[in-house]
User: What shape does this take?
Amino acid sequence: MPGENLSREEARERGRLLTVEGYHVALDVRSAVTRGADAATFRSRTTIRFRCAEPGASSFADLLAPSVTSVTLNGRELDPAEVFDGTRIALADLAAENTLVVDAQCAYSRTGEGLHRFVDPEDGEVYLYTQYEPADSRRVFANFEQPDLKAPFTFEVTAPEGWLVLSNGAQEGPVEGGVRRFATTKPISTYITAVIAGPYHYVTDTYRRTFEDGTTLTVPLGALCRKGLARHFDADDVFTVTKQGLDFFHDHFDFPYPFGKYDQAFVPEYNLGAMENPGCVTFREEFIFRGKVTEASYERRANVILHEMAHMWFGDLVTMDWWDDLWLKESYADFMGSFAQVGATRFTDGWITFANRRKSWAYRADQLPSTHPITADIRDLEDAKLNFDGITYAKGASVLKQLVAYVGQDAFLEGARRYFKRHAYGNTRLTDLLSVLEETSGRDLAAWSRSWLETAGVNSLTPQVTYDAQDRITELSILQEASPDHPELRPHRVAVGLYRRLDADSALVRYARAEVDVTGPRTAVPELAGVERPELVLVNDEDLTYCKTRFDEGSLATLRARLGDLTDPLARALCWAALWGLTRDGLMPARDFLALVRKFAGAETVIGVLQSVLGQAETALTHYVAPEYRERAAGELAEGALRELRLADPGSGHQLSWARHFAAVATTPADLQLLQGLLEGTAKIDGLAVDQELRWAFLLPLASHGVADRAVLDAELARDDTASGKRHQVRCLAARPSAEVKAAAWADVVDSDALSNALVEATISGFAQPSQHELLVPYAPRYFAAIERIWRERSIEIGMSVVRGLFPFWQADHSALDATDAWLAERSEAAPALRRLVLEERDDLARALRAQACDEAAGPRP
Assistant: This one.
């Protein structure tokens, strides 16, 4: 990977010298249908027209390819052996006007980077798609791989007859000799170009919009997936959300969708959730649901559709200069996804899910040693790859939500409109966006930017309340704290809500509220002086700011006793999130959090919040409960899950969520026997349909506890002989409690690169089972011995999967922490991105040990 890197300084110098006028890219992918190892490469012929500001200067083009057939610069044939080093093409003595032609053999990918080739085990069909962010288009064609060198692209693809082929632009003219030609794009960056090719199932629709000036915009819509998934594909719902989103963004952005058509491809073995290629968006095919899912899954898919659509403006139309300002697209798209979801679709609880689920990701990332400001210091491409994280996405979106509260929604949207019109098809930096927001709001945003965008870390807000003899508030203040490593105390616009029961049997309702600007370590809220004593003080009511919410002792006692009595779903979600934060920070015993889940999660009405809380309970059980109490805690959690599973409305999403949770925590012979009975049909729970996806969810714990053997898993694959079934089977096979199984799984991932990215992920997931500590302990030293080689030899995507997924978290004791510290001390010269990943895993391990110590100190529970 080091040879594939590109530094910010190199990119700036090349950006200073070069201006790209256009690309013509011709790909021949007919080799993709060749069986066996022969289907390794495809032909890529690229013509780049570009100007050089200093004739006579030297620069380079990017290309990652097994071989280059020819290189021609301004009509001069260059010797590929002399100018191509495997990652770059040296370009010397440039003219003012230049034409570069590169003919190469590029490699099909099995890692989801570049041009990925997938063979469907169900029918043997071959499917191709591209994925480039941040810098993998150079695996497919020669280019200048940096976001500020935007240019129009013309693609030409030669593919097998009968295949569907798509790119950013619409196909022009008939197919001749297998060649498809596509309309030239507007100026875009290399990383958002795209090609999709294969016998995809394709559905079409049309979006029309008439504007106030009488003009009409017509956008052809397409949605596609593998043929094997066609029977599950609910394209009508995808198109419904798509049209609602286009209407919403046209209403608010005052800039018509600028890229012609709008295809959305759901593709196999995808590393990301989705990618915003203009006119040709790609999604992971798991968003096509093979079995029953909850409404939260549809909500999640709608959010991703709208997130990628927002990128058509934030990111594609206007693009950051360099990855330092990645937030200019990802933070805005993350915010706009929820904003549009609530404003335009049936998923009106989007901000509740955001508060409970999305922000949890941000809070975790912001407490890691690798936390960084939203506007980050991105030295090179490896830095950029790792900064697609909870800071850039969810914290950035949270901060924008705070900014909307600060400047007002109208000023915020008017700023966006001016930003698009002023910088269309160009590149920007932080100051470009802030300047238009200052114009529209009349506020000086320099101080706000310094506090929120240019510093790292998360503040904690805690209420402090005193009362008089009549139980009325004499003073309510908010105490703000920051971590020693990131001491910035930020300005927060917050709503403070006071909750109580109106009588002994009623729900907890808000009876008083005040908004206040929190500044410094202590801020008084005089508006609430004289109000009757509350049972609960919620300092970030309505989720206006980004902070860790803490409670005074009385409020925490109320939540322990009456959390389920909170009627407002957003307030309840915020309390769940705050309680989880206390657990992660080792301030509340993990078994206390599990007790709250057992007591109150069954009454949670918002399905997305329920699923989030149940996932947190599983994490707490595995990592935060003291080892000596874990077996009993698991039994109690499973008992509560089974109770709620039986009580849930038959056939409901809540019932399905409890069924999956029960499978995840089942450990006793009786629980495993019930799972087996549900699989075999000898046991039944009213309304629970055990479809294929749920069957695999039940088989994983059965495999990990030695109940389902190889023969059972092979038989299940025969029942579900699909790409999805194969991934599930590989995961279950690696989960079996056998030393031989673990050795084989380790070898498949660490010692071989034969597996695709999806099967690497599945193998790692199965290998690291929390109940198999003794089997896994020997792999800790092998992990530290292998990761530098893995980072050096594999693609960055696979390297990240291995380094994160195989970190010896299963050991969860101080010996694992010591081994990590020893590796970090001895490998000070290791790649910075690799060290960052190990540091992050170390931090999670240290956090788990602190939480276990807190849980252990609490002693036995009745």
About this structure: The chain has 28 helices and 28 strands. The mean pLDDT is 95.
